[in-house]
Amino acid sequence: MPKKGIQEIQASAAEFSQRKPYPDIGFFQSLTKGQDPSAILICCSDSRIVPNLITESRPGELFVIRNAGNIIPSFNPHTIMPDSMIASIEYAITVLEIQEIIVCGHSNCGAMTSLVNPDSIPSLPVASKWLKYYAAEALENAKKKHHDHPDGSDELLIKSTIEKNVLLQIEHLKTHPVVQEAIAAGKLKIHAWVYDVGTRVMQEYSEEKEQFVPLKNDKVNTASDDLKEPSRDETMTPFNLTLCQIL
Ligand SMILES: [Zn+2]
What is the pTM of this model? Predict the structure, then answer.
């Protein structure tokens, strides 16, 4: 499928407000009252990751924070300039009172690949320093695991680095006072996910199995759920159908 150029993207953005028929126009009007997201999703800036599409969620349901490599700087009481990632997390926990954080890595991640193979990308003085500073430990952890399987390829090392990086960034996340306080108060749960861009399979980290396993669908429809309004499935389906049509 040919990719859209900037002019087509501009045209689509202009057309978006006029697209008819569009599902549940009143829903968009309701968004003007404020936001009440269910989760913070921290993921890579990679254009192949479309958070609302891969979680089948609507505008207002995810508070998304992104950067190259889904990096979360660890707490530094002496820092002169606070980080935008942490500022966003602080706002989401304190003001929006979000109680779930998902840290989501992905397959074929250029940032993680560049850690394993520095020659795979041109010289990037800022990005390489950023990744080395906050994610080099993920590569070291992956190499330790790789050491047990010396026949593995670079591909396996990259896959392992992607997974270890998600776990490392969660450790960084837990160093921040605002996160520690929320966890201590029983008001915060943290989830480790990795998304495969080719198969669309989402995996989560299992503490019990000490590895990433396919995410299970634990959603249980009960009689009381059926009575709730509005029906989430009914309002979601057209939105995601529209997204898929656009894609
Ligand atoms: Zn990436």
Answer: 0.86
